[in-house]
Every structure is written in structure tokens, then in C-alpha cells.
Amino acid sequence: MKLCYFNDYRLGVIKGDSVVDITEVGKDIPQRDTRDIIVGLIERWDGYRGKVEKAAADGKGVALKGVRLRAPVPQPGSIVCMAVNYMENGTLPQKPHISAFHKGPTSIIGDGDTMVLPDTPATIFEGEAEIALVIGKRATDVKLADAMKHVFGYTCFIDGSARGLVPSTNIFFPMKSRDTFAPIGPCIVTADEIPDPHNLQIKLSNNGHLMQDFNTNDMAHNIPRCIEWMSAIQTLESGDILATGTNHRGLHSFMDGDKIELTIEKIGTLHSAVKDDLKRTWARTTRLQHREAGGEGPHTLQTGGKYAKS
Questions:
Q1: pLDDT by residue (tens digit) across 173-185?
Q2: Residue 106: phi, psi to the nearest 5?
Q3: 190 near 304, Cβ under 8 Å?
Q4: Helix %, strand %, coil % for the chain, to 5?
Q5: CA distance 232 to 143
Q6: Computed from CA positions of residues 189, 234, 105, 204, in that sequence, does the dihedral angle turn out positive or negative?
Q7: Do 60 and 87 belong together in one domain?
Q8: Is residue 310 part of a domain?
Q9: Which of 50, 179, 216, 274 is 20 to 30 A from 114, alpha carbon to alpha carbon?
């Protein structure tokens, strides 16, 4: 099943090229507004699944192309992102230590929304293509064998980054938690539709040019291990987002006017625009291309605009 929000945060089920409004199914779930329904629905899924399926089957859909899709979890309690969690197409000599960081929930935006680059002296802005899982039920000290029972579903996720900010002792907060730096969507695909999340192709295109292309089978620490490790540190609640990391070889500059498409097999395509009022520029070079050309540092230097070094 593909669950989504659309227009003024109506809850829907995507069926082919249409979406069926099922907001009324969750009207008795405690909520401040309709953006809260999805978390309550996930938390109560066993009791509501039949109602959702009936509403989706009986309801009259509207054309998907005629609606505005929103973030499928607009207000997660927590966003946890795995750090350096891919073997870079098997090129790393050993498995990296497991690690993670938080992104602020206000960084969430949805399909078709715009990532806004802030006026800050970042050395480069990048976006990392990732598959993210949505937690289905509270996870505390979860054992490896039970970890997948806590996965409700999957969605596309772009981890926006403002690299090179100081102080270097606190890199993740100013780099990762900016407003609009976490596009997700276009929907949540329930876990039963993706029996093997460790064999999915992930592709990110920028202005029609393929920049990232890798498979989830290259994860250094698989999803059960990520859940086991993270739930031993903090409790994960229904509706929380756990992003599983990226292959860094295709990372490249995000600049004003960019049109980003992230496609994950069996999930769909997430569209995002990029806006930079300062019109800063970088070479459109991937990290792998930069390294193979003998460039200094992990990525290309800024070539123009505010903060560019002469």
C-alpha cells in the first residue's frame, strides 16, 4: 500500500495514477490537525488497516497528476540519519564504524518542494540520495532478530548538507538540520510490499543528468543492525524516520535552479527544486570524478558568488 498526503494535507492511498482520499478513516485519531493523522494511524495500524483498505477500495480516486503531494510524514518526532553507511561500491577496505546523527524535524519538505540554501559560508551544498524507513511501533533495545518487526514502511529521502562549517567539533547540527534540508516522499510504501529492502536500486538525477546510481545491497550496516544499534541509544517511536545513508561517490554540488529527481525501486520518484538567492556556483563534479582528477579535499571548490575564495 502507498500512503501519502496531498493538497491541504488530506491523507490518501495511491492506486496507480490516482489517489483516494481516506482522511475520514482517521477522524477519530487524536490530532491537532490532519498532519498528525499519519503518526496516529501508524501507531494503530493493526486496528485500522482493514478500514484503510476498504476506504481505498470503495473510494473514487482523483488523478495523481492533478494534486500536490506533501511530505508523507510531515511532523516526525525524530529524524535519525546513518553516517558513512555504504561500502562505496565495495571500495572501502573495511566496514566503517556504525554512527548516526539527528536532523531537525522542521527540515522536512515534500515532493515538489524547494530546498533553500542559506546564507552561510559552506564550502559546498550537497544532497544525499537515501532510502529511509518509517518506524511502525516503539523500539527500545530491540534485538537484531526482531528489528524488522518495527518497520512500518519505506520512503525516499534526501539528506541536505552544508559542508565545511565551523566549529568542526560540532559539524552535524549546522550542516544537517537546516530548514528544507530533508525532502521526503512521494509516499510511504508499506513494508509488506518490499520484502527485501537490501536489494533496491537508488538513482538521483540533477537537471536530467544521472549523478548517483547504487544499490542498497552495498550497505555497511543493514537495516536490522541500524535499528538494533539506534534503539539501544534512544527509543524510536511510531512515525519516526531512520535514513540509512548514501554512497558518497556521486555526491555533487546543489545550486540555484537545480531540479532533483530521486528514484528508488518499488517506492517511486521524489522531486525537489533548489533555490539559492546568492547564486553561488561550483563545478558540476562528483566526488569520485574530483578524486580521480587529483583534486584536493573531498569535493570541488566554490567557483563564484559570495564566500568564494579568490
A1: 888 989 999 999 9
A2: -75, 0
A3: no
A4: 25, 35, 45
A5: 9
A6: negative
A7: no
A8: no
A9: 216
Q: What is the dihedral of CA 57, 60, 63, 67, to 10 degrees?
A: -100
Cα of 261 vs its chain's centroid, Å: 12
CA distance 70 to 177: 19
| Backbone phi, psi, residue 138, to 5° | -50, 135
Distance of alpha carbon 272 from alpha carbon 184, whole angstroms: 9
pLDDT at 26 over 70: yes
Q: Does residue 245 contact residue 86 with C-beta atoms inside 8 Å?
A: yes
Task: Give me the pLDDT at residue 231, please.
Answer: 98
Do 55 and 93 fall within a single domain? no
When divided into structural domains, the chain yields a total of 2
This prediction's pTM: 0.97
Q: What is the pLDDT of residues 257-308, one digit of tens each?
A: 999 999 999 999 999 999 999 999 999 999 999 999 999 999 999 999 999 9
Whole-angstrom Cα distance, residue 255 to residue 206? 10
What is the grid cell recorded at 69?
503531494
CATH number, domain of 113, equals: 3.90.850.10
pLDDT in tens, 98-124: 999 999 999 999 999 999 999 999 999
pLDDT of residue 170: 65
The answer to whether residues 61 and 97 belong to one domain is no
**Whether residue 106 is found in the same domain as residue 248:** yes
Range of the domain at 288: 79-304
